């Protein structure tokens, strides 16, 4: 195989109580990438459509992630990478992660699969280090593994794939304002009260249990964040109103996606997700902010091969 075309999905990281450790994979929102081997022994970003992003391999998360993979296998092979960006950078739905994860997935396939998708996570994380200064895994892991994933530990890295209850749907609102991950991290407090920590790990444990037992009620009660959301939500226009609307219309939970500005509503079933999407759209249409709105199933597979 010399060339591969893939769909690399958007992801919702944090999921309220799982700040920096939890994420899930979306099904119908993502970038398309074409990766082919070249004879130049160089990693090149040959084309980017849909967004203005660096073509220089060392400044693009895709290039950095692929170089980390090639260094690990000791390969001198070169690759050309084309990216059709459908996820805007700085959206909070894993734009940089989609490019980094997609690039290492594609190169790994062309090399004959020396790594499992789980083993590709650390290379994709190098792309995240470039994007935000922090090699986090909560977007690249669900992009590579599909479904829900939990980062138990960073040193050593241990990532778990969690089950996906069938009826879950995600509504994502992306207000078209840019919040850099770096900026939204810098406003976070560095210490947490014991009381808040207790409520957070209670919710996170319960959420994991709810995923295993398909207990939608418990899942909804657990999607709470008493630590990060109160600080970060001030960066998101009309966050409190949106949350109220989503919950009133039956969403199981509502919170910030990644570092924002996107927000997500977790819903049970298509009918409820449609209702939540319509209510959010009607509310935001009356405001002076452009937005994108997505409704997606949870993608259990992760990155998909298109050709
Ligand atoms: P997101 O949470 O949507 O990934 P980040 O703020 O974490 O947003 O990352 C976006 C940053 O990464 C931007 O500064 C962007 O220029 C940089 N970047 C470099 N390469 C890419 C790429 N291929 N796709 C998206 N962002 C990239």
UniProtKB/TrEMBL annotation:
Transmembrane segments: none annotated. Residues 63-147 form the GHMP kinase N-terminal domain. It is found in: Cytoplasm. Residues 208-285 form the GHMP kinase C-terminal domain. Pfam families: GHMP_kinases_C, GHMP_kinases_N. The keyword Nucleotide-binding applies. This is Homoserine kinase.
């Amino acid at each position: 195989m010399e060339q591969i075309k893939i769909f690399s999905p958007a992801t919702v990281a944090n999921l309220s109580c799982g700040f920096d450790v939890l994420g899930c994979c979306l099904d119908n929102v993502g970038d398309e990438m074409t990766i082919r081997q070249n004879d130049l022994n160089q990693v090149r970003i040959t084309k980017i459509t849909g967004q203005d992003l660096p073509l220089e391999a060392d400044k693009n998360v895709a290039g950095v992630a692929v170089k980390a993979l090639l260094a690990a296998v000791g390969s001198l092979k070169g690759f050309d990478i084309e990216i059709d960006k459908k996820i805007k950078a700085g959206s909070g739905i894993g734009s940089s992660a989609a490019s980094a994860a997609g690039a290492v997935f594609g190169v790994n396939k062309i090399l004959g699969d020396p790594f499992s998708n789980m083993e590709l996570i650390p290379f994709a994380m190098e792309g995240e280090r470039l994007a935000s200064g922090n090699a986090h895994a909560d977007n690249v892991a669900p992009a590579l593994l599909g479904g829900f994933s939990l980062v138990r530990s960073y040193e050593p890295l241990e990532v778990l794939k969690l089950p996906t209850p069938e009826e879950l749907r995600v509504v994502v609102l992306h207000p078209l304002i840019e919040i850099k991950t770096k900026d939204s991290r810098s406003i976070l407090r560095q210490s947490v009260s014991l009381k808040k920590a207790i409520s957070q790990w209670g919710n996170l444990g319960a959420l994991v249990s709810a995923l295993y037992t398909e207990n939608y009620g418990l899942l909804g009660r657990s999607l709470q964040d008493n630590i990060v959301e109160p600080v970060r939500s001030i960066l998101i226009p009309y966050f409190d109103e949106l949350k109220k609307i989503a919950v009133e219309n039956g969403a199981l939970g509502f919170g910030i996606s990644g570092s924002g500005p996107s927000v997500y509503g977790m819903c049970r079933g298509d009918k409820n997700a449609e209702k939540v999407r319509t209510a959010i759209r009607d509310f935001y249409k009356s405001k002076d902010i452009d937005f994108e709105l997505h409704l997606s199933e949870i993608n259990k597979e992760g990155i998909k091969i298109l050709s």
